């Protein structure tokens, strides 16, 4: 196990698994010269506009230093001098657009580097802007940090300001960069967000994705370790989670994994998931133009089920539509796909969906019988008790003994007693439930704050579900991203949630968090969070209560 050392940039100690940040697109070739230089030059401004709009959207979701940095980056992107110079390089210099942007930004960055000190640090910002525009012109994915859904330590050659500005403490546990200095934006923002950070850490990018590390932002030491360790009262102690989800007084809460294919399932099993709470079956088929053959489906399903022989695996039937269109199921030209024929609805309108559902259920049942996993099947986007009854009947026809629904539509919460009476279990998709509760697109940056899982309105809906679960005896779990937040997990349990399912990287942290609270503690935290006026107040109330309960 190696110990690396860098510049302490933001104090605090944290431990987690490494997520590597996507690389920049690299240097575009000098040629071939464009056939129509004017048309080629005209591509630059729209690409700049797209990048600027993305950064603006991200800026709108944050405040303070983070917003200032993003707004400064937008100003750099839209600098008319940069744009003019790049266009001249196309029309006068015969460069392809991407190359022209690369060279124009390079000249600006060189100027800043020549000035030294603080200005030289800003050269990194120009490079970030350049990489984003170049990626857009080349049709490549935007470089930088993808949406993070589980706590992790971010490791990068360097982090751009636009990357650090969108980070959330609790998810980004610590930052480690190979480059950067103490006044780099990574350092400034890490400090303002209270995230431990080490910059200028030679060898950081040789740490493998998924490796467990301890980062000490006060001393600049980054240690590779065999297991993630938990921070407690400023000292690092061994992780408490023993692989069985339960509160400190023994109330069992199985901790399950969200997976999409066999490889992820094997990783999740290795991280001691007690089963799969959400197998997103559609993910394997997002690029399939036609319904995958039964043989192909069998291969995908059996791959996941085999990793959990003897344990529960909850497969969700194809959740086609909106953010996850499946060409063979999704209707063309719907004006508002998020509110259209999606999820279970594709099986209930005229068209191929009903047969596709039957083939999927039959294939899942056959794969489960072979692998020995305990198959549970649930339907996405269920709004009424009648839909739940219909789906359960379809499952029974295929011999599936445990059939349930996802709770993602507020109507299903308000009729929870009736819905739960129809099913063997339910699982809350907090991502969509929040989106429909707040009328806030889950993919839209400017409304992201409404989709915060600590929103008291969302937590109060979960409380209604917990009450209906207790009254009907039907277990309700959570499989949306809310379940991956270690501070929120005891709240969810206190609200009456029976299982928590999450990206496997979050299991140990959530398990350790639950092990530190009794069921009564969880209930008190749930009440405090529900009573709060907004997400910040809910977080604070729960954090204060946790300290009090620990004392
Ligand atoms: C959810 O909506 O919370 C959920 C778990 O499903 P998905 O994110 O796949 O829509
Ligand atoms: Mg969903």
Automatic annotation (TrEMBL):
All copies of domain Phosphotransferase system enzyme I N-terminal, residue ranges: 5-122
Domain PEP-utilising enzyme mobile residue range list: 149-220
Domain of life: Bacteria
Domain PEP-utilising enzyme C-terminal: 246-515
Protein name: Phosphoenolpyruvate-protein phosphotransferase
Organism name: Pseudonocardia oceani
